[in-house]
Known about the structure:
The complex is a heterodimer of chains A (273) and B (373).
Chain A (H helix, E strand, L loop, with lengths): L5 H25 L15 H8 L1 H33 L7 H13 L2 H14 L6 H24 L4 H9 L4 H30 L2 H6 L7 H9 L5 H43 L1
Chain B lengths: L18 E10 L2 E11 L4 E5 L6 H9 L6 E6 L2 E2 L10 E4 L11 H11 L4 H14 L15 H14 L4 E5 L7 H18 L2 E6 L2 H7 L2 E6 L2 E6 L1 H6 L4 H6 L4 E10 L3 E6 L2 E7 L8 E6 L5 E3 L7 E12 L3 E7 L5 E7 L14 E6 L5 E3 L2
Parallel strand pairs in B: 3-8, 3-9, 6-7, 7-8, 13-20
Antiparallel strand pairs in B: 1-2, 1-4, 4-5, 9-10, 11-12, 11-14, 12-13, 14-20, 15-19, 16-17, 16-19, 17-18
The structure holds adenosine-5'-triphosphate and magnesium ion.
The site of magnesium ion has 4 residues of chain B, from helix 1.
Amino acid sequence: MNRLSWFNVVSLTLGFAFLYIPMVILVIFSFNESKLVTVWAGFSTKWYGEVIRNEAFLDAAWVTLRVAFFSATIATVLGTMAAYAMMRRGAFVGRTLFSGMIYAPLVMPEVITGLSLLLLFIAIGLDRGVLTIILAHTTFAMCYVSVVVSSRLVSFDNSLEEAALDLGCTRFQAFMSVTLPIIAPAVIAGWLLAFTLSLDDLVIASFTAGPSATTLPIKIFSSVRLGVSPEINALSTIIIGIVTVGVLVASVLSKRQIAQARRDEAMADQAEG
Amino acid sequence: MVNEAAFHPWDDPDATPLIRIEGVTKTFGDFTAIDDVSLSIYGQEFFALLGPSGCGKTTLMRMLAGFETPSAGRITIDGTDMAGVPPNKRAVNMMFQSYALFPHLSVWDNIAFGLKRDGLDRDLVGARVDEMLKLTQLGKLARRKPHQLSGGQRQRVALARAMAKGPKLLLLDEPLGALDKKLRQETQFELMDIQEKTGTTFVIVTHDQEEAMTVASRVAVMDQGRFMQVDTPDRIYEAPNSVYVADFIGDVNLVPARVRQLRDAVMLDWAEGKRFFAKPVGDLTVGQEVTLAIRPEKIAISREVPEEPNRVKGKILDIGYLGNLSTYHVELPEGPVIKCEVGNRSRLSRRDFSWDDEVWLSWSDTAGLVLSS
Ligand SMILES: Nc1ncnc2c1ncn2[C@@H]1O[C@H](COP(=O)(O)OP(=O)(O)OP(=O)(O)O)[C@@H](O)[C@H]1O
Ligand SMILES: [Mg+2]
């Protein structure tokens, strides 16, 4: 193993400090006894109790979870279908245009996405609420899912699907019984990504949420404008925890997927050799 | 092979072929992979496709299986035009060159995959899979996943999976390449056995001529998307219609020559004042530039002057000992090097010939073929 030079150690330390000190402070002060956010007065978990008893927070959390679950699920279905269509052998007319268009929302400013969705909902007379947030989140999460799934499909051996067809499957059966189980880790990773993105989102949600439904990030943002309370710190810590778990699971799954792809390649090599 | 003498549907004008390939062309962009090919394959045939890498064997198979559509021409199977018929609606199964085993399924489930699609009864599926496992000697590995198998074992799973449904037509793309010689021979005989029992028609791609010769009722030699010759193995070997086929199948000596006289046997000039006699193939004219093809095993080697009219004297350049036979490379003073093969009957007795010996080579009038293309 190479030992780290002092230069590497310093740059790593600085980098991680830069990234994580704000969050660490937030987490530490969520256990603060005092109501004053910046003055440490001893350890306590009372603010977590406060959070759990706060109806408005619980409502917002419930909305957020529902939105994240449904939008992630719909986005995964649509994103996987889009990725699959893009990766099919035999280019169709306008394929480059299509794949460009699928990825465009990734770089589109969220404000613009949010605004355009808002205009659309107003135009078709859809009342803003949980449904509109779900639709909006599905729209932008779908591109992320299709990016993740198509990167797996690039290394997918098409002859597996052909073998399934040859053995009597229809195209749909072949997809369900062969392709999907093989790319499942990527699909699940895509779902987790979509879920976390939806949990995090503030900008698009604030454009598309209505008085009947508020998500947690919106709730936090609006309460902070009245002053930061330790209760918000506690709530944020819980969210950090959930997101961390999500990201960890997603990365473990994609690691496994890479390992599987390597094994498949090794298998193909052996088969040829 | 057993019924070789009796089984000749291709010579029977009344026989209906199972597969009819009519003027089929396949292009990828501006590259022509299959070039206006026509062929009939009859029920219960064991048809072998032979040819160099990239000549279009897999492409032809894929068109039969329904994965590629011909750019021009027509394919009918059992009298039905296959245009627009998807792979899952064809009574055809294919064993892929890359095996294409399902990595998420065990050996057992891989083999059962097609049977389950047919909505077969569970017990029947189980019985059939077990039968296939036994046939391919995979019984002990039934629970393993493909990545836990060796190359040869994977090949056998792919074979078992393709055969499980008992299709009318079985397409095998280099089915035995990864097997060792013994297992390959066993499987070859097994295939022939299955074919005899079930009456399945086989189309098999192989790089191994010996394999094609052993199993096939007919062989097609391909080059650059075209059939050079379609014939029974013995005729491909003994009566190739072109230099390409003669050179591709087995070892052959090729000597450029010019036709001098046409009689029962053609008289050829091959060097200043030197003549050979040989059997003509096709129409020849006096003065035509041709190639004389002689198989090495048809040439006798001796120290004494032989009786045959086709005889040449030369010097041994090289000797190869191959166990069951020895090959001699003999250089003629006129230039060409002639290869000759002699069976080793007695066990390493005295060596008859050694390097630089002056020897005579001879062969009969009917041993050599005159090829005009
Ligand atoms: N999808 C495709 N697009 C473009 N060219 C192709 C395609 N499939 C095959 N070809 C070309 O067609 C030719 C014939 O390919 P094919 O796979 O039939 O060869 P083969 O005879 O099976 O060779 P091998 O013995 O190496 O398997 C090759 O030159 C190949 O590059
Ligand atoms: Mg091939």
